[in-house]
Specification:
By secondary structure, the protein is mainly α. The chain folds into three domains: 2-104; 129-220, hpI Integrase, Chain A; 231-288, no CATH class. The chain is built from 13 helices and two strands; from the N terminus they run ααααααααββααααα.
């Protein structure tokens, strides 16, 4: 039953992996799952490839651009590019892949962990007010890209908290984000006036269609890693709650804090994790450091 629900490309890639059993069984299974996920992602992006040998450079570039916009780490992207190189080689189209990952905008090697909150959108103003408002929501409320687009402010704004409905969020986990600052209140009021009872997706566009238009504008303005706006939110909240910057922002590592400070930091991390929509405390290391 599951196989019949797959698109043509996903089915073709499953067949390709079955006929080319390179590596250990776990490696093969991981590769198969990864390629099926990529096939589904391409389909969602509007690329309905009929066959495995339909892969083109534009598909690679769009995938990498989307992954970077979604905030995937360079390591994760490199792993996925490995699957793409395998795929391209097996259908005799290795030339569609750049010779190096650097040509796709990835560093040659992973260096020290960088503070992604310092390497993202700062003062760039997009001409489209809906797009700019979406980025502002990501920064001031820690929303994911998809959440910022789907949010209906007049439904979510409860005065002191922003109540996210499960249908807007990753994994269907609704959550509450405190409305703490004048800047947050001003932004919500502006968005309410801008879109009324709707979301920041125009009425004549689907989510996928508007996302494509948005990503095109981000690329045009050379804006990468908008997920880093969530990092900025997390670090701002940590500073508010703990009274000192996190280690990624130049503060002390957790092991260097006093016992009282450690207890305060753990409580802050737990709260920040919930506000970001994560279930695990450990994920805050990505946003805040060790």
């Amino acid at each position: 039953m599951k196989a019949r629900a797959m698109n043509n490309l996903a089915l073709a890639l499953v067949r390709l992996t079955k006929h080319n059993r390179d590596g250990a069984l776990a490696t093969q299974a991981n590769r198969r799952r990864g390629l099926v996920a990529i096939a589904n992602e391409l389909h969602g992006l509007g690329f309905k490839l009929p066959r495995a040998n339909s892969l083109k450079p534009k598909h690679i570039q769009k995938l990498v651009s989307t992954w970077q916009t979604n905030g995937l780490s360079n390591g994760t992207i490199k792993n996925r590019l490995g699957w793409l190189r395998w795929w391209a080689a097996k259908v005799n189209k290795a030339s569609v892949m750049p010779r190096t990952n650097a040509e796709l905008g990835l560093p040659l090697r992973e260096g020290a962990r960088t503070n992604r909150a310092q390497t993202t959108v700062k003062t760039t103003t997009l001409r489209n007010p809906r797009m700019q408002a979406s980025l502002n929501l990501m920064e001031l409320f820690g929303l994911r890209f998809e959440e910022a687009l789907k949010l209906r402010v007049r439904v979510a704004d409860k005065g002191t908290v922003l109540a996210l409905k499960p249908s807007w969020t990753k994994g269907g986990r609704g959550r509450f984000i405190p409305i703490r600052t004048a800047a947050q209140r001003t932004l919500l009021d502006q968005v309410s006036i801008l879109v009324g009872n709707g979301s920041l997706i125009p009425a004549d566009k689907s989510y996928i269609g508007w996302r494509k238009v948005f990503e095109t504008q981000l690329a045009k303005h050379e804006i990468k890693n908008v997920h880093g706006l969530r990092h900025r939110y997390a670090q701002t909240r940590y500073l508010e709650l703990v009274g000192q910057p996190c280690s990624l922002a130049g503060g002390k590592r957790h092991v260097d804090l006093s016992p009282a400070e450690q207890a305060q930091a753990i409580a802050a991390r737990r709260l920040i994790s919930a506000e970001l929509g994560h279930a695990r405390l450990s994920i805050t290391r990505v946003y805040l450091g060790e």
